[in-house]
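Journal club prep, notes for RB
We'll compare a predicted complex against what the paper describes. Inputs for the adenosine-5'-triphosphate case:
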Amino acid sequence: MNPTTSADTASAETPPTGHATPAPSSTEPTSAVGPPAVAGSTGDASVGAAEVRMKASPAALGRALGLAWQAGRWHIVAYAVLALLEAAVPVTAAWLTKSALDVVAHRADDASALVAVGGALAAAGVAAIALPHVSRYVRQELERRTGRLAQDRLFAGVERFTGLARFEDPAFLDRISLAHTSGGATPSAVVAGTLAICRAFVTVLGFLGALLVVNPLLAGAVLVAALPALAAELRLSRQRASMMWRIGPMERRQLFYRQLLTSVRAAKELRLFGAGRYFRFRMNAERAAADSERRHLDRRELGVEGGLGLLSGVIAGAGLIWALLAARDGRLTAGDIALLATSIVGVQSALAALVNEVTMAHQQLLNFDHYLTVTSAEPDLRRPARPVAPPALRRGIEFRDVWFRYSPEHPWSLRGVSFTVPYGSAVALVGRNGAGKSTIVKLLCRFYDPERGTILWDGVDLRDLDPGELRARIGAVFQDYMEYDLTAAENIAIGDVAGRERLTASAARIEAAARKAGVHDAVSALPRGYDTLLSRMFFGPDPEAGVVLSGGQWQRLALARAVLGDGRDLLILDEPSSGLDAEAEAEIHNRLREHRAERTSLLISHRLGAVREADVLVVLDGGQVAERGSHDELMRLDGLYRRLFTLQAQGYRPDGHP
Ligand SMILES: Nc1ncnc2c1ncn2[C@@H]1O[C@H](COP(=O)(O)OP(=O)(O)OP(=O)(O)O)[C@@H](O)[C@H]1O
């Protein structure tokens, strides 16, 4: 059966409030319809894909250099000039040393020549000492600037994901973490790598010129020995990037265990169950597994780099023995020997530095792929070509045959759900754990898109609306509301910040919201009133440094945040009273009833007594609407609601009878 024909198709204009109705059952979408590739319609499945390209593309190189250029073009120019000067210094010093030795050997009585060559050598020495320091400072400043720019772009990219699906994808989270590291470091590493090539080119060319004069064969041998080193190091850096991707999940799990073992929330249970040792063991196991991968590669590097070092040593040693024998025969001067020795060391160290910088840049560039993927990924939720600004709610919201699962691997969380929230009314969603209540809220805020069916806001499909503007019309307290380590005023003012860089709510509005949520008295009694820093942990002995609130007080603050925005059409309260005592719950519901009077609201609560006065109760069971109607109608129906309500009511009667 096609699900679109089986479901309740009541529109927002004809809300089913007349009498209680057991909802019609729906069947799964047929295979002909076919699920989308990724749950929640994440447009670009490759963003979290588990594989990573192990080739640095020229485009990535261009983007990295472009980013560095934007962040600090004058720093790059200065760094380039310094790099070239640094490159020229050792070659100049080697020639000057040779000249000095030759002057001493053949023109020892020429004082002006001695002073000139000595002075030049001293200047080269000063340059050799000072240049690396200045160059390091410029590089560090360039790194800071590119790091800041890259971080801003990365998180602006992350903000473009308006849904939640990407944040539930572990591969995507690994990408963000690698993107954060590589995004900041790669551009300056690539600049350094590029300049290292130039620098090495100048140094090697200078020394090779010197070696060519002394012995062309030796010059060739030194050069050829460096090429396999470069190839081997590039291969190793590819393997290192691949290893880092493989150990990403292990690092993530380690972080989870580390946070768990130091979290104040987890501390109670961990101590009660004595579970600390268990989690420490798991954390260490993850670390051991990651270390084993690292060790494997370190050993390979040791073998390759040790072998190449041996080769360089053999070439250098052979060259020097030959030179000493040639000097004995009078074919070389003492200055030639000094020049040869410096040249061999100079070429080898210039090439080693080149290999080092280039492989580092190469490795960073491989990881830069993550940064590019995150910053250039398509938005996760389909954006309409011409998004419609959501109209002020006048008719209501309608769920029309909505099917949803969190991914194709997950079972259906909603199966053909249809119901309406008429304008100005309060609709309560009730049902057992896992029935799909919070999922409905998440779809209504458009954190995901339904796989089948539609959700209509005054007749307009949510998918045609701009998600930001839609959310500006909704005030919500989620089951897992946030506790911000900010002041009480800031905790409330965040409820009306919508894309701005500063909080703008006035003190009067903040206080009014706090009063509505019944938290004004508690906040006023804090050491600095609304300016008291609230924290989930103690900050030492200073009571004004941070105050710890109770769970119920935090929940009221979340409530104040939700009711702060005046222009909100819809108020969603997902378990708003779970952390409150019975008296507080009654008080909050009375206050909220006043607040809700002019607006539409969707309430979720397991305390059925708290929502029995809603205009309509929608009873969910296994992702389907099982019943709907007012409290009295549902009680008469004698179905699931009556059973749940009676069970709860029994708990409050001394005789245990309904
Ligand atoms: N992020 C998620 N990823 C995968 N499955 C999820 C996710 N969130 C919820 N589910 C599943 O969707 C189903 C409905 O969950 P939902 O949270 O909507 O239920 P609920 O009625 O709000 O439950 P409760 O009363 O316990 O809060 C459950 O089977 C749950 O396991």
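Talking point for the session: Residues 1-46 have pLDDT under 50 and may be disordered.
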